[in-house]
Amino acid sequence: MTIKYTINELLVDIESLSDNFTCPICFDLYYSSSAKKEVFQCRDGHLACKSCWSDSLLNKKECMICRTPINSMNELSRNRFIENEFLKKKVYCPNTFFMIENLMVDDSSSEPLIKDELNGCKETITVENLERHQNECQFRYQKCPFIGCDKILRFNKIAEHKIDCKFSLKYCLHCDNEVSGQLDAHTLICPKFIIQCTQNEACKISFPREQLKQHIDQDCKFTIVQCKYCKNNESSSSSSSSSSLEKKEFKRFELYEHYEKVNHSFDMDKVINNQQLELVECKNQINQINHKYEQLLERLVKMEQLSLDASKRALQLPRFKNSIIFATFSNHRLKRVNEGVSTVPLDVGNNKFKLTLYPNGYDEVNKGNISAYLYRITVNEPSVKVSFSFIFNNKDPRKNKNYRIQEYNFAVGATSGWGYPKTLKTSDVDSENGWLTEDDKLVVGLRIQVLA
After folding, report:
1. pTM of this prediction?
2. Which residues contact 391 (CB under 8 A, 6 or more apart)?
């Protein structure tokens, strides 16, 4: 449980405070809550807390007392004298009282503070040093650091509590780890704790708990096991071997005696033959896998060569990469629908292209948006397949807009174009939004790659 309080409850002599330390509007001490640490005054010297000034100026632009016109908080001045004088006032350490968590938590609390005469802090400090003292006070409250323990104690009692806390960390000599809770309970599950075989009391072998399963499965002489030759012969006729009539399950230490008494040569030969057949089958499968691996490796080499050849051809194909600058773009925004501004012809191999922007849209459907189109203006050349992109550059590179056409085929002979009818909103393209430079230029990156 935490007790809420205000700083006026900590003051050693609250009766000595003059009205100068009380806000005349809300009648609270200037430092009664975390939101009221600053004192402001009008030019005639009338004081109020920052919160009251802010609330008042939202309704009326004037002093709440003398009605002097005030347009904003910037026309007020801080009263450092009052603030500094209050910082010199003496207060009790909050840790003088029972279960106090924070200063200035809630000034609406009506629950009285109760002094801890026996275990509380006896110091009185100034308001200015209160926060620093709280951080260093040996009587401050602190939760037990051990997981699972919810006790809250004074700092100078924590060390003593740690010794007896049932949630404190204990060192396990077996697993070399620190564990919480009771050490005896941990030993019941500790994987390194030394135990004896649990399968049979006659087995006195000891080992770490984590090795129990391995011991029972592989070593314990009291584990029930089967004769692998008798088991292998269960489906055979009784004439195949006399061992089929014998007992088939034994304790491990009895199995060796069984092997000495019963002749398993026929069954052993059968097992060996089966294993040889399995070995031949495994070799066949390995050969098949190796053959398939060689085929895949050959295909991979061919594909890598094809990829390398394609990359070389792509590097040899014509391309264009540059930034296009549209000067005085603010003037172009006044153009009509379907009225564009174009670049000079751009040579890309045997083809000529131009980039055209329609600042107010390519048509009525896209009015109010910048349309961007790439046109081929070569007439006598065959059809050509290209990929191209427009990159609208922003002052903040993270806001750049990239519009890409993966593949487009410009037809034979005719002038044709393709692009994006709707890119940026025309109204957004200005220097304030970062799309235009300070000298009114729009920068568009243009990439053209001939594909075939």
Report:
1. 0.37
2. 400, 401, 402, 403, 444, 445, 446, 447
